[in-house]
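Revision sheet: structure tokens.
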Amino acid sequence: MTIEDDQARFLRCIGEPTRLRILKLLVGGEKCVGKIVEGLDKEQSLVSHHLRALKECNIVVARQKAQRIYYKLADPRLAELVLKSEAMTKELPICQLEGGYYEERGDQGQGKS
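Predicted:
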């Protein structure tokens, strides 16, 4: 395996919209699964599936306290990557569909799509 193989796997893992939304929620700090589910307005089973994928790629880490599982970004540089890539996507004509604009969401992208 090459570094490019690992890099491609990493980018594929974070390149899924629901996973990006999870990462954006975690930019603000550690959250329990229930709060992540609330923030995404998705089924818990779907959120758990995406959290498992992010954990398998070592992008998030989990800890259990009593009956709750808490997730956080594995490395603070991931927050910077998520925020900078969003800014670049808004500012540069990177992978934009024709029309090139994004609707502003009052919930900062944390509600239903």
